[in-house]
Design goal:
about 550 residues; mainly beta; Immunoglobulin-like; eight-stranded mixed beta sheet; 3 helices; 40 strands
Length: about 550
């Protein structure tokens, strides 16, 4: 795999040679390649960097007839000038030739697939997509993407595991079409293509400043969020206060210093703390391969998305019947799109009578222990939450109660143990939950009616910019996203619910309820109803 070696050089230069091999059809097939020069108009290299080739590098080359062959490094490992020998594929005829590096991202001669998850050993840039077109054996490679450099340091020793980025309006992974000589890249309209992640094969210490690199297509990224996850499961999220601009062939640096992962911790018992997901859980059923993700922002919700109140499988959802993780509990398989009306018919499509995980003939089962896989966050990989199963879970009823009623927390605006406040954020009603250790951002109005479950949420009104600052300080917001009763979505913007993992009866489960002037953690609701899910991580 190629590694970016950081030097004082401003031009990236590479050379490709197809070495002789035993297949006579490929004898004397040679390609010489150089990268775009920074000094030429409209051509930009990654300033200060050069590419060194490794012994596992591969390139894909197409000829004029779209015959395709893969070439491997044969000589020059560790240098910027290297020979590549034929490895597999068709015999190449006459040009023009089109080459993609690395070969793993090629889809065809004019398309590549940018991955949702990029991997690194130590944070360095290990892959940089490039493309070359030529009518002869001289190939000029162009960078297809720009690079984000995250310069991170923590207030305490933290071993970083993943960096997830989320944006709105600009896709950052998926199938991309290459234009011209490779100087432009257009990603097709992909549902959910607004999430990408860098995963460290080995946790990296943030005790001192350290750089991490991701490549992204050029674009202006709005509502840009960075979610950092440590090896111990703690998280730290940051929101950009403006747009992030990524230019092809250039490095954009995002410096985040004195990061506090503790600022995002919430006590849910005398001995346990958790971190909250940065948004409500969403199921993207409209994607070619459905997947789970967190909402881009705390206050986002789908509302009355067409089909969410049906049993269609190809609809995006964020209101779920209880225990609809997709786990097959024997014959009881509750999918995120399972639904029913308000009678005692099942919300499972596969059984005649059911209300969630079943233990023999009993429905008295929590989403814990032997039935933990019925919990959405346990069973499923969350794309922008680590992209692996068993990372997240739903709070229990006792944990929600402790969070809102009992835990010790900071003093805020004269109120000791400030735990929550009903509020509107960006015009959306809901409840703000303050972390155990919270320092309100300077210049933002202090919350009032703190810990008052019957206060009006109009008493605290915050703009999107206000919330960005509060979110960066660790606050969490649950929006009033309504609920689904049977096949009707109701009270969007007026009422909010968040499921717990605890049953209340054979047909019910506990949830947190909040309205414009009320909040309770003891609400009991029918399991077939679709409610919001906000996951936590221990």
């Amino acid at each position: 795999m190629r590694k970016a070696i950081y030097t004082v050089m401003a031009i990236v230069t590479v050379a490709l040679f197809a070495a002789c091999n035993k297949d006579s059809a490929h004898v004397n097939m040679k390609f010489t390649a150089t990268a775009e020069s920074a000094k030429d108009s409209g051509k930009i290299s990654l300033a200060g960097h050069t590419v060194r080739w490794s012994d596992d590098d591969t390139i894909s080359i197409y000829d004029a007839s779209l015959n395709h062959a893969i070439y491997y490094v044969s000589d020059g490992v560790g240098t910027s000038r290297c020979e590549f020998a034929y490895h597999s594929g068709s015999r190449l005829g006459s040009g023009p030739y089109k080459a993609v590096c690395p070969s793993s991202i090629h889809t065809n001669a004019t398309q590549v697939t940018l991955p949702a998850v990029q991997r690194t050993v130590d944070g360095s840039l290990t892959t940089l997509p490039m493309y070359a077109v030529s009518s002869n054996d001289g190939l000029m490679f162009y960078n297809l993407c720009g690079v984000l450099r995250f310069r991170l340091s923590a207030s305490a020793s933290v071993a970083l595991s993943t960096i997830a980025v989320t944006t709105t309006g600009t896709n950052i992974h998926g199938t991309a079409t290459i234009a011209g000589q490779g100087t432009a890249l257009t990603l097709s309209a992909l549902s959910g293509g607004d999430v990408a992640m860098l995963a460290c094969d080995e946790p990296q210490s943030l005790a001192s400043p350290k750089d991490f690199y991701m490549y992204l297509p050029a674009g202006t990224y709005s509502a840009f969020r960075v979610l950092l996850t440590a090896a111990d499961g703690s998280v730290c999220s940051k929101n950009a206060t403006g747009n992030i601009v990524v230019e092809r062939g250039k490095i954009t640096t995002i410096a985040l210093s004195s990061l506090s992962f503790d600022a995002h911790r919430f006590s849910v018992s005398r001995t346990k703390t958790v971190v909250f997901a940065p948004g409500n859980l969403q199921y993207i059923g409209s994607a070619a391969t459905p997947y789970w993700k967190f909402a881009d922002r705390h206050y986002d919700y789908f509302g009355t998305t067409t089909g969410q109140n049906s049993s269609r499988t190809d609809v995006d959802r964020d209101l779920f019947g209880w225990g609809t993780s997709g786990w097959n509990n024997g014959n009881y398989w509750y999918m995120p799109y399972n639904t029913s009306d308000s009678t005692k018919t099942p919300y499972s499509n596969s059984v005649g009578n059911g209300y969630g995980p079943k233990n023999g003939s009993s429905y008295y089962c929590n989403l814990t222990g032997s039935y933990a896989n019925a919990d959405w966050g346990v069973f499923n990989a969350i794309r922008n939450g680590g992209d692996a199963s068993y990372h997240w879970r739903t709070p229990t009823h006792d944990e929600w109660s402790y969070l809102f009623k009992t835990r010790s927390a900071s003093t805020l605006n004269g109120t000791a143990n400030a735990r929550f406040a009903l509020a509107t954020v960006n015009g959306i009603g809901g409840v703000i939950i303050f972390p155990d250790s919270y320092v309100h951002p300077v210049g933002i109005a202090l919350p009032v009616n703190i810990n008052n479950a019957s206060a009006s949420w109009l008493s605290n009104t915050y703009s999107d910019a206000d919330w960005t600052a509060m979110d960066n300080c660790g606050a969490v917001f649950l929006p009033a996203s309504g609920y689904r009763k049977g096949t009707t979505v109701r009270l969007v913007g007026s009422d909010g619910n968040a499921w717990s993992s605890t049953y209340s009866s054979v047909v019910g489960a506990y949830n947190v309820y909040f309205g414009s002037d009320s909040l309770t953690t003891d609400n009991k609701g029918s399991r077939y109803m679709g409610r919001s899910v906000r996951l936590v991580r221990d």
